[in-house]
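debug: dumping io for the single-chain case to check the tokenizer round-trip. Nothing else runs in this session.
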Amino acid sequence: MKIKSKFLAVDANVPANTSLNTFIRDHSHLRGTKNMCHEGGCGACIVSVTCKHPVTAVKQTYAVNSCLLPVFSCHGLAITTIEGIGNKKDGYNIIQKTLAHFNGSQCGYCSPGMVMNMYSLSEGKDKNLTMKEVENSFGGNICRCTGYRPILDAFKSLCVDAPPELKKKCADIEDIYKLKTCPKNGKPCQRSCEGENTFEEIENNIPPVQIALPGSYWFRVTTPKDVFEVLNKAGDVSYMFVCGNTAHELSRARDQGEVKSLTSQGHLPLPPLPALTSDPDF
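debug: decoded output
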């Protein structure tokens, strides 16, 4: 796993039910990524993930709720946090600047998640974003004080079909119209080329995973054959399959007793399932 240009290893002292959010904040000491509901509902914990699509093998970037994703499921992923796209020392990303200019932040607790959702959306597209795409992509981000109008206006102003009057509102943002266009994807430069080989470095260094944890084991499987081999070895020991871990949102472990019973099981993280995108006979 790689966070903020650093390769990170999770040792056996980290409990099996540790979320990526907990690891980022308490182990990596990067506190820009927030947490609130711990159920994947508020969006405060969103970070950006880059990995290879399991079917097409194409590199993809998307947003994840770090409070749901187990850190042991992040093996082979490149993780980008809010600190990784812009900060006071290195300069802020244009998305961060635009949100601030539109007064899209008051208490600021939701802002990192809002920015990282927009960043993931823009990085994951192979074409310029439209306002409709932005509007349809923030159903999982909650703001309790600012209101959604300035936030959406800020992000829509960066879209290809933004009206002139909306773009004029951010005309005095430093360098917004001086941004170079990336020759690789045609989108505004995000100054990310220095880390463009991040995922390739990880991809070439992904060994099989079998970790013995206190009271449990964690296996990383990549094929159905791997699954049955692990189950045959496990025998009658209880186990849990882990993919997106979204079941945690519905059946959240709310007391320490349930958390302990969770870590006493074997864990098998599953890769994303192939998606049916079209049917020529339909």
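debug: round-trip ok. The domain at 2-203 is CATH 3.10.20.30 (Ubiquitin-like (UB roll)).
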